Amino acid sequence: MELPINQFKHALREGRTQIGLWSVMADAAAIELLGASGFDWLLIDMEHAPNELPAVQAQLQALRGSNATPIVRPPWNDIVWMKRVLDLGAQTLLIPYVQTAEEAAQAVSFMRYPPAGRRGVAGGTRATQWGRIGDYYKHVEEELCLLVQVETRQGLDNLEAIAATPGVDGVFIGPADLSADMGYLGESRHPEVQQAIEDAVRRIRQANKAAGILARGEETARRWLKAGCNFVAVGVDAVLLAEAADGLAAKFRA
After folding, report:
1. 177-235 pLDDT, tens per residue?
2. In a domain, 2, yes or no
3. How far apart are CA 148 and CA 25, in angstroms?
4. At 235, which CATH number?
5. For residues 37 and 58, is the Cβ–Cβ distance under 8 A?
6. Which pTM was predicted?
7. Active-site residue, selected from the candidate residues 10, 48, 139, 190
């Protein structure tokens, strides 16, 4: 059995834009449905959604054979969480709240086996297909993709150093937390926040790393694509469902 190819990672390296969707519903049936919708990637969120490891495993299984690459966001930049998610077979991780190059390097070390890193070694995991991928340890890191999330002013101050960290494939800007840290809680569209994000995207691209963001609404998503973002989440599954349900109900109430 061969190691799965990380289509998302290869697309970023080739400069191909990747359109994704954020998933917070923590449901395998929902993400299986989304996997056939035509998105390049789907984000399985463990930081702000009720996802625990069994639910993440079920969602990864639901996406097997899909053209959408699953990206998992662990709750934190933590060696245990990252190890367990990698053992489930996730190949692309988005690590929240990275503020320094040292924290980025720490995340890289958690992704790699010794002597290059600190990831614990286990054989009978879903990642190795229960030992069926014979050369897993030799080639696994070729298909792993690490995205780090910058969402504070300190992170922006250290952006070039974070992006330059060997092993970091892309930098994702978190508008909600960044706006809060800048003093504009709940106002991610404030002009100062938007200007800071535009500047961050430019700096990330100048560092020859992929830039990503979560956008709410088609107009906003197209703006960030035009600004140079390589991977953009153009919606959130729960929001899409709520808006569609509200709209349908309103039609019949009228």
Report:
1. 999 999 999 999 999 999 999 999 999 999 999 999 999 899 999 999 999 999 999 99
2. no
3. 22
4. 3.20.20.60
5. no
6. 0.98
7. 48
